[in-house]
Amino acid sequence: MDIFAPIQWFADWLVYTIFNTTKGSQLGNTVNFFVYDTIKILLLLSAIIFVVSLIRSYFPPEKTKKFLSKAKFPILNNLSAALVGIVTPFCSCSAVPLFIGFVEAGVPLGVTFSFLISAPMVNEVALVLLWGLFGWKIALIYIVSGVTIATVAGWVMGKLKLEKWVEEFVYKVKIKQAYEKKLTIKDRAHYAKEYMVDIVKSIWVYVVIGVGIGALMHGYAPNDLLVKYAGPNNFFAVPLAVLIGIPLYSNAAGTIPIVSVLIAKGMAMGTALAFMMAVTALSLPEFIILKKVLKPKLIVIYASIVGLGIIFTGYLFNVLIR
Amino acid sequence: MRIAVLGSGCATCKRLHETVESVVAKEKIDAEVEYSTDVTKIVELGLMHSPVLVINGKPADLKSNSENDVKEAILSGLE
Question: Cβ separation of B46 and A175 shorter than 8 Å?
Answer without folding.
Answer: yes
